[in-house]
Amino acid sequence: MATARLSGTENRLVSLPLSRIRVIMKSSPEVSSINQDALFLTAKATELFVQYLASYSYKHGRGKEKNALTYTDLSHTAEECETFQFLADILPKKILASKYLKMLEKEKRDGEVREDDDEGEEEEDEDAAVGDSVGS
Question: How far apart are CA 63 and CA 76, in angstroms?
Answer without folding.
Answer: 12
